[in-house]
Amino acid sequence: MKKRFFLLLLIVCCLFVKAQAPAIQSRPYPKNYFRYPLDLPPSIVGSFGELRPSHFHAGLDFRTNQRKGYPVHAAADGYISRIHVQVGGGGNIVYIDHPNGYTTVYMHNDRFNEAITKAVRDYQYQHQQFDVDFKLPPGQIEVCQGDVISISGASGAVEGPHLHFEIRDTKTEETINPQLFGITIPDKVAPSINAVGIYKLDNKPFSENTPHQFLSVTGSAGNYHLVHPGVIDVSGNTGFGITSFDTNSASASRNGVYSIELQLDDKTVYTYAVERFAFDQTHAINAYIDYPALLTTGRWMQKCFILPGSKISLYPQSINRGIIDFTDDETHEVKYIVRDVAGNTSTVELHVKSHTPAPAQTWQPQGTLFHYDRLNEFANDRVKVSIPVGNLYDDVDFIYSTLPMRPGAYSVTHHIHNRFTPIHDQYELWIKPDRDLGQLADKAVIVSTAGSYAGGIYQDGYVKGAAKGFGDFYIRTDDVPPRIVPINISNGKNMAKLKRISLRISDNLSGIKSYNGKIDGKWVLMEWDYKTRVLSYTFDNIETGKHNFELTVSDNKDNAAVYTANFYK
Ligand SMILES: [Zn+2]
51 alpha carbon to ligand 1 midpoint, in Å? Predict the structure, then answer.
């Protein structure tokens, strides 16, 4: 009787522990130092470390009821250390440095408070530029916890209004999960698991050709199982993966999970946790997920094995990079433990039958073997590729070929491997023109057939560009100036009743590099709304009478368009 009671107690304790598991983290963080930056009930539309195209989400996206206009408060005492007005990206951004070694960051603001607005204006007029990014010394703009620093909005590259909030290590600039600082979101809901993946890796690099199977998973309240239960055959080097997401008590939006642990026969072989990471490693998300699967099926399969060239700090623990070598003839249990940051836990188990692998055959690459830990170069008489060390996540069987010349192109199309292999950062790509560029040599650019622009400088008989990924590339030219379409101004117009001058600008290929508005020959601040492509000048201190407005817009190949008009105020 007593024994049974203790057993029951033990089971209850285990259940309790399962639901309350503390987040996996490498160090403690101060819990009651920062306050919520909004006065609204805490609710998020995006979690820290959430999977996004080519990056891990670097902060919390606080919900602002789908509208702009909420006061944003300093999370703690400190000083405004940096202000960034970004076209796209984070929009209007404020940074506060705090005396405890952390920096808080607030993005997508509609506008800044008075002191910050003045500092921005002064800097913009001094440097004659709208998009500015500058640091401020301690003592210039000090803030106390709770002070209103800005008004929330939707500036930058966002779809809807919200506040993006980050906590960074001031010295290293690594971004850290704000929920580990007690900026928590009510959550009693365990993560959902949709599918698991099993990869037959053998001793080959991971690629779109790696044999794999994806199995559907179903369940609820933390307990998940295969839709079609059964024993799965495995042999030799094997990798696993999982598709999962998290929801919380405050909203139904699908956010990222905090940690994933993989166990083999109750022994941990791999863990992943979104505690903190450096911005220069965020592209390694394409090494973390099954990138070919994302491109072909839209599925975010999170691999539970680590590619050798990935340097992101989200893997606190792994044995043999999470790759399991099945060599016996036994049945094994593979278990995934998925947690959100509140400690709610979901699990799914697989039973695998191990088979002794056939004697390993030496792998022969079809093309040129690139090593992930070396400088890799490829060249023939028409093209040169140079990939710096640290840009490949795994070895690559590099395939090159040529495709016929496209209409209007100045070179054949060069097939530079394929888009399924992700690259961490850009690499040098040199293409020799196959027909004479004549007077257009300084207007030559490299573009991909998928539409991406890789820049271009004519040098040593080649056009040299910087490509961000593999794909099919060729030379074309950009000698077309940007387009300026006036919205509310025309020559001779009386603008006495209007608050601003607005025009729409766009470019066909290389992209807009600069825009400069002048009234009566004097530079004025033109604000550019990235999403609507509207450039506008808000009238301030303009005398009544006749004035001249002039706008010059240049693209990255120095093609310029000029618009002028006289107006009356
Ligand atoms: Zn965000």
Answer: 11
Q: How far is the CA of 253 from the centre of ligand 1 (A)?
A: 14
Average of per-residue pLDDT across 281-288 = 98
The two tokens of residue 66 are 């789908």
Task: Measure 126 CA to ligand 1 centroid, in angstroms.
Answer: 30
pLDDT of residue 20: 58
Phi, psi for 119 (deg, rounded to 5)? -60, -40
Distance 131 CA to ligand 1 centre (A): 20
The arithmetic mean of pLDDT across residues 73-82, rounded, is 98
Q: If you measure from the C-alpha of residue 311 to the centroid of ligand 1, how many angstroms do you get, rounded to a whole number? A: 23
| Token pair 């971004």: residue | 175
Position 14 confidence tier, pLDDT thresholds 50, 70, 90: very low
| DSSP one-letter string for 384-437 | EEEE-TTS-SS-EEE-EEEEPPPTT-SSPEEEES-TTS--SS-EEEEE--SS--
pLDDT digits (tens, 9 = 90+) for 22-77: 889 999 999 999 999 999 999 999 999 999 999 999 999 999 999 999 999 999 99
Cα 97 to averaged position of ligand 1 atoms, centre (Å): 20
Q: How far is ligand 1, taken at its centre, from the CA of residue 382, in Å?
A: 43
Burial code of 205-223, b = ≥16 C-beta within 10 A, e = fewer? Answer: bbeeeeebebbebebeebe
Taking the centre of ligand 1 as the mean of its atom positions, its distance from the CA of residue 371, in whole angstroms, is 35
Question: Residue 137 C-alpha to ligand 1 middle, in angstroms?
Answer: 26
Distance between Cα 205 and ligand 1 center (Å): 33
Distance 104 CA to ligand 1 centre (A): 13
Does the predicted TM-score (pTM) go above 0.90?
yes
Distance 277 CA to ligand 1 centre (A): 15
d(CA 22, CA 505): 51
For the segment 455-477, the average pLDDT, to the nearest whole number, is: 97
What value does the mean pLDDT of the chain take?
Answer: 94
User: pLDDT by residue (tens digit) across 370-386?
Assistant: 999 999 999 999 999 99
Map out the domains of the chain with their CATH numbers.
44-181 (2.70.70.10), 192-354 (no CATH), 368-477 (2.60.220.30), 483-568 (2.60.40.1220)
Q: What is the pLDDT of residue 11?
A: 45
